[in-house]
Design a protein that fits this description.
mainly alpha, elongated, 68 residues, single chain
Length: 68
Amino acid sequence: MRRSRISIARAMLKDASIVMDEAAANVDPENEDRIVQKGKHEELIGQKGIYHDFVLGRKEAIGWKLEA
């Protein structure tokens, strides 16, 4: 986290463009070792695993409706 802040500060001082990766923005050293899959969507969706299950679950949940 500290290295990220230093890198961002340097980029700001140089007036450089900054690209933030939202998916990894909150990854700190304590959570980094919980990362079990890496890759692009096309690669990960084709593999059995956490990412595939998550995306499939989200697609199924889109059609859910609560009835009173």
